[in-house]
């Protein structure tokens, strides 16, 4: 039972255009949502997050939108650059009493930005 | 970059042998995690620790055990490795902020 889903395994975008990566979730109790970027042979690196009480968070070229009614979030990258080519993971975080903070990850989307 | 190292970075072993992976942090963070990454599955939590000697199971804990005797070290042990445990293993740490985990560089394990 995948609680966090990334239905597009890959996405190709032209340099300078907008990249939109999508993520759906099933558990309405998630408290935070995060995006990680991963290059080959490296660990994932944190990109941007959003609290469940907000609907938008922006950091430079990266903006995350949260639609709670649709249980959907998206990451917008504008403008896209070749260095953005990586696997992007969506993750959700649930504060559970008496336990550590656990992230639930989607399966990832490979973004390729074409020069 | 968060101070997280993993050792070894690559390992090839045979079915039935024990394997221990080490995660070391210099950030003094309370929470530490072990994930495995497999194609089509993203990252799945194996075990986590919320303090010295305090550990709990994650989503895919069968066949794995962990230990944390010091704040800075979190060990993952495969008691008897199987081919299904061939994967890339990532350690992560988390501090006071509830919304961010920092990952190590990963260990690629191949079980023949």
Number of helices of chain A: 0
Q: What's the Cα radius of gyration of chain B? A: 13 Å
Kindly estimate the percentage of residues of chain A that lie in beta strands according to DSSP: over 45%
Global mean pLDDT of chain A: 92
Summarize the entry for a quick read.
In chain A, 0% of the residues lie in helices and 55% in strands. Chain A is mainly beta and 115 residues long. Chain B has 112 residues and is mostly beta strands.
What does this structure look like?
The complex is a heterodimer of chains A (115) and B (112). By secondary structure, chain A is mainly β. Chain A contains no helices and 11 strands. In chain B, a hairpin with a 3-residue loop joins strand 4 and strand 5. With 112 residues, chain B is mainly β. Chain B contains no helices and 11 strands. Classes of the chains: A mainly beta (115), B mainly beta (112). The A-B interface holds A 4, 6, 31-32, 34, 36, 41-46, 49, 51, 89, 91, 93, 95, 99-108 and B 4, 31, 33, 35, 40-45, 48-50, 56, 58, 90, 92, 94, 98-106.
Keywords:
heterodimer; A: about 120 residues; mainly beta; 6-stranded mixed β-sheet; 5-stranded antiparallel β-sheet; 11 strands; about 55% strand; B: about 110 residues; 7-stranded mixed β-sheet; 4-stranded antiparallel β-sheet; globular
SSE topology sketch:
The complex is a heterodimer of chains A (115) and B (112).
Chain A: E1 4-5, E2 10-14, E3 19-25, E4 32-38, E5 45-51, E6 56-59, E7 62-67, E8 72-77, E9 86-94, E10 102-105, E11 109-114
Chain B: E1 4-7, E2 10-13, E3 19-25, E4 31-38, E5 42-51, E6 54-57, E7 64-70, E8 73-78, E9 87-94, E10 102-103, E11 107-111
Parallel strand pairs in B: 2-11
Antiparallel strand pairs in B: 1-3, 3-8, 4-5, 4-9, 5-6, 7-8, 9-10, 9-11
């Amino acid at each position: 039972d995948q609680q966090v889903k990334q239905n597009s395994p890959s996405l190709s975008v032209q340099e300078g255009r907008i990249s939109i990566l999508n993520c759906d979730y099933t558990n309405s109790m998630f408290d935070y949502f995060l995006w990680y970027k991963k290059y080959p042979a490296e660990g994932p690196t944190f990109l941007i997050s959003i609290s469940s009480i907000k609907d938008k968070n922006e950091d430079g070229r990266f903006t995350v939108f949260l639609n709670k009614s649709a249980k959907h979030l998206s990451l917008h990258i504008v403008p896209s650059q070749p260095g953005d080519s990586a696997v992007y993971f969506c993750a959700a975080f649930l504060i559970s009493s008496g336990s550590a903070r656990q992230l639930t990850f989607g399966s990832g989307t490979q973004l390729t930005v074409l020069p | 970059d968060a101070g997280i190292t993993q050792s070894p970075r690559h390992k090839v072993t045979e079915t039935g042998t024990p394997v221990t992976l080490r995660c070391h942090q210099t950030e003094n963070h309370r929470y530490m995690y072990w994930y495995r990454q497999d194609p089509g599955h993203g990252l799945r939590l194996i075990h986590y620790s919320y303090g010295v000697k305090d550990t709990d199971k994650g989503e895919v804990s069968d066949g794995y055990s962990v230990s944390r005797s010091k704040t800075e070290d979190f060990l993952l042990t495969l008691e008897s490795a199987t081919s299904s445990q061939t994967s890339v293993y990532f350690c992560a740490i988390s501090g006071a902020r509830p919304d961010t985990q920092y990952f190590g560089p990963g260990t690629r394990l191949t079980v023949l």
